[in-house]
Amino acid sequence: MKKVILVTGANSGIGLALCERLLSHDTEGLLLCLACRNVRRAQAARAALLASQPAAQVDLLQMDTSSVSSVLRAAQEVKVRYDRLDYLYLNAGIMPNPEFDAKAFFRGLFSSKAITMFATGDGILTQKDGVTPDGLQQVFATNLFGHFLLIRELEPVLCQEGRTSQLVWTSSSNANRSAFSLEDIQHRRGAQPYSSSKYATDLLSLALNEHYNKQGLYSSVVSPGFVMTNLTFGILPSFPAFLWTLLMPVFWLIRVFTNTFTLTPYNGSEALQLWLFSQKPESLDPYAKYHSLTSGLGNNYIQPHKMDITFETSESLYIKLLQLESDARKKLAETQAAGPSLKTRTT
After folding, report:
1. Annotated active-site positions, please?
2. Is 239 in a helix, a strand, or coil?
3. Mutual angle of helices 311-346 and 193-212, in 10-degree steps
């Protein structure tokens, strides 16, 4: 029986590299579903995967994790298509309109925190968040809440007696406790929504283990390191492409001092595919984040690091997300109910 695997944000970057590695690892034994917001890009990704692995079974699913209705609709389709789900890779994410703080960069360049600054972007990147049509903060909805809704909706295919399923979150080394607040889980009042959402990801993974392990569902968190993807290029959108190319030797040099500079999506997907895919989920530490690392010589390896999280905070976040889920479902139901009557009045 084939393992059924769903990957969100699978059309490029880490998500696409993960899919390539999964299929090269076991083409015949996998049924891979690419869940993407943009159908055209998803089709291109599927074509590329099948070009290298013609025997692979690759399905497409249109889903925008920033939209409550899109997530619920996609989850319903998954339950119709598949009677089980072995792996759910929660990878989709955004960092909208990042701004580079040049003053903070040059201050940090000559400080003891220079390597950390390069490795995580801590202190030098701020973002301007948006609001979704559902009234949610865009980064929070895309990176965290949409995935939470997806998990909740897919319980029937994820939690089945006699077998285990695994959630694997793409987090970040930029997940900082200082950016997150339980009083503002959507990060409406801050300037680091990406960091906040990734720290919330770490917290939520711990809570999910507490609530779902007995049902055979296990959650793990990975960090791909510093990878050159569209997300990275978006940090300096006006930066000419050739300058990024010129910077690559600098990045390789930095990798001698910090192994978090994985640089390529293939290297960054090391923890997601090669290591976690072959582990028994029961044996994994729920407090550990599994980092993809690349040595100065270009060798890939995995290293677990204890996350800066507490059980109490994770439970508090989980309760808040359950309440937000209830509110979001009610709001959607009211909107859908008002739709026909609104149409009647206008006609």
Report:
1. 194
2. coil
3. 100
